[in-house]
Amino acid sequence: MLNGAPILDARGIHKHFGTLHVLKGVDLVVAPRELVFIIGPSGSGKSTLLRCCNRLEEPSSGSVVVDGIDLLNRRTDINAARRRIGMVFQSFNLYPHMTALGNVTLALRRVLGRPRDEAEAVAHAALRRVGLDEKANAYPLELSGGQQQRVAIARAIALEPRVMLFDEPTSALDPELVGGVLKVMRELRESGMTMVVVSHEMGFARAAADRVLFMDHGLVVEEGPPAQIFGEPKAERLRDFLRELDRH
Predict the structure, then answer these.
(1) pLDDT digits (tens, 9 = 90+) for 53-96
(2) Alpha-carbon dihedral angle through residues 238, 1, 200, 194, given to the nearest 10 degrees
(3) Single pTM value for the model
(4) Which of 41, 84, 116, 168 is the most exposed, fewest CB within 10 Å of its CB?
(5) Other CB atoms within 10 Å distance of the CB of residue 100
(6) Which string of DSSP letters, residue by residue, matches 127-176?
(7) Which among 20, 171, 202 is positioned nearest to 91, based on CA atoms?
């Protein structure tokens, strides 16, 4: 997939939590406009890897370069660098006392210093992209979980990041609400957004991913296109994982 410089280049990432060695030298290299899916059992280090990519977790060792910026260089303005990296979490992390519009405009005004009218115009455009502009004045408690997650996505894309990280974006949702969030993610992917997704939505991975990484015990065990990972897996551990999924 790589033609030219990667947009995200994480190499040799190790992460220790005390005596627990969670990541054991993981590489994650993502090309512009690529959608990379990370799968694996709980506790394999998937979410920790994502969080190391924007320094929500500090890697114990390794290197992380995003859009040409060395995130681990002490001279790097990490808050400025993070604007290039949108992140959507399992929990929506919306401010309950603010409307959908207020949640999306907050970073535009506080982080980018946009004037209110300009921030609101950008926020309305982001809410339109996720199909929720008519809910701009609704508070989080007035929205379904799926709508709240779509507001969280709008908040991230309003900052025009170069890459989006999704950490289990549908796992807190009721099954009937998952489709709306995946639809937005598909549309982002079609618009050319670079995306790294940690999720158990295997149907989405098969249909939309350019590349799938299977992690286990802090290592990337196998990676390749969806047809290989799901159709002709080489690693016994991956075959076991997929068989287990089929049983549920």
Answers:
(1) 999 999 999 999 999 999 999 999 988 888 899 999 988 889 99
(2) 160
(3) 0.93
(4) 116
(5) 29
(6) HHHTT-GGGTT--GGGS-HHHHHHHHHHHHHTT--SEEEEESTTTTS-HH
(7) 171
pLDDT at 153: 95
pLDDT of residue 3: 59
C-alpha distances (whole Å) from 203 to each of 40, 62, 70, 146, 209 are 15, 32, 34, 18, 10
Q: How far is CA 164 from CA 88, 99, 117, 141, 216, in A?
A: 8, 23, 26, 26, 23
Show the CA angle centred on residue 48, arms to residues 109 and 163, nearest 5°.
Answer: 45
Task: Please tell me the chain's helix, strand, coil percentages from 3-state DSSP, rounded to the nearest 5.
Answer: 40, 25, 35
Q: Low-confidence residues of the chain, pLDDT below 70?
A: 1-4, 248
CA distance 24 to 14: 5
Q: What confidence score (pLDDT) does residue 60 get?
A: 96
Three-state DSSP at 58 gives: coil
Give Cβ neighbours of residue 197 (< 8 Å, ≥ 6 apart). Answer: 35, 36, 37, 38, 166, 169, 185, 204, 205, 209
What is the structure's pLDDT at 243?
92
- Classify the C-alpha dihedral 200-205-206-207 as positive or negative: positive
What is the Cα–Cα distance from 198 to 166, expressed in whole angstroms? 6
In angstroms, the first-to-last Cα distance of the chain is 33
Buried b (16+ CB within 10 A) or exposed e, 14-50: bbeeeeeebbeebebbbbbebbbbbbbeeebbbbbbb
Token reading at 144: 């379904």
Instruction: Encode pLDDT of 204-225 as tens digits.
Output: 999 999 999 999 999 999 999 9
